[in-house]
Amino acid sequence: MMHSLRSTIAQPRSRRRLARLVAVVWLAALAGCGGGGGSSGTSASAQCDVDSQKSWLRDYMLDAYFWSGASPNPEPAAFDSVQTYFEALRFGGSGAVPADRWSYITSSAGFSQFFGEGKTLGYGLFVNGLELQLPLKVRFIEEKSPAAAQGLVRGDVILAINGRMATDIVAANDFSVLNPAKEGDTIVVQIAAGAGSRSVTLAATAYTLTPVPAPRVLTLANGSKAGYVLMKDFISQAEAPLAAAFAGFRAAGATELILDLRYNGGGLISTSKLLASLVAGSAHNGKLFTSLSHSAKQSARNSSYSFSATEPGFTRVVVLTGERTCSASELVVNGLKPYVQVVTVGAQSCGKPFGFNPTASCGSTFSAVNFEALNALGEGRYYDGIVTTCAVDEDFNGALGDPAEKLTAAAASYLQSGVCPPVAAAAQERARALSVARRARGSQPEPGERRGMWAD
Question: What local confidence, expressed as pLDDT, does residue 19 receive?
Answer without folding.
Answer: 44
